[in-house]
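Write out structure tokens for Alpha/beta hydrolase.
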Amino acid sequence: MEHMVVSDRASAVIAEPTTTYDVRGGGGVSLHVREWGNRQGRSVVFIHGWSASHVCWARQMQGRLADEFRLVAFDNRGHGMSEKPLDADSYRDPQLWADDLAAVIDQLGLDRPVLVAWSYGGFIVSDYIRAYGEDRTGAINLVGAAVMMKPPTFDNIGPGFLENAPDAGLPDLATNIAAVRRFLGVCTAEPLEPDDWSAALAWNMVVPPEVKGALISRQIDGDDVLARLSVPVLVTHGRSDTIVLPSMAEHVLDVCKTARPSWYDGVGHMPFIEDETRFDRELAELAADVV
């Protein structure tokens, strides 16, 4: 089945970056960072989610955003082309996540970038602002973002994640693959196009099962950060998201006084793919308003 809102271009093939960086993040972990677009424009930093990669932002890197803004995306520790320590402590310490994002911003010399945080990226932004404050942030776009993870109830985390993520963290390859395939099947409201689906399967399988498991082994609550934010926050969320439930976005809107919603009807956990045109337009508007 073809997806309901996609462009004609081969979106799974990401555009060639203008610059590639090796950034040393928290604890000296090597982070793979890439840059596209207009180096003179407002900086936008894209932070991907659990078991993903910078490649998930392929559409944004070859669309209208690249004409106007300086676009930066990186692979989180343990993901993609970044270093992948296998010990759980490398993923449980919030300071390491904060240091990762700070290192990207500092070493690239980014001036108050817009932080685009998808899914698990919401935790990373919370870690960063708790540790470093918001003075170096222009605005935040929370995209299907999680801001709390409280085992064993996992409030506001949906069955699409809870029924698949544990198996994806097991060492048995067949079990791992089956779990990731199920997970991808419920990430979007309509099936991904074949090129997008195969790219997503590939970037998931690059992440070691030890990393997948460690990521969901810590308890997180970002309310303290959300409650004191003064920068603009755009809350982008699909009404049909079964990975991070719409109730998570509603919680953000209740706690964060600067947050405003952008609800996507008939869209799941990947609005930047499911409705790329609207997503890019609203992100451009958010970035343009940063003073």
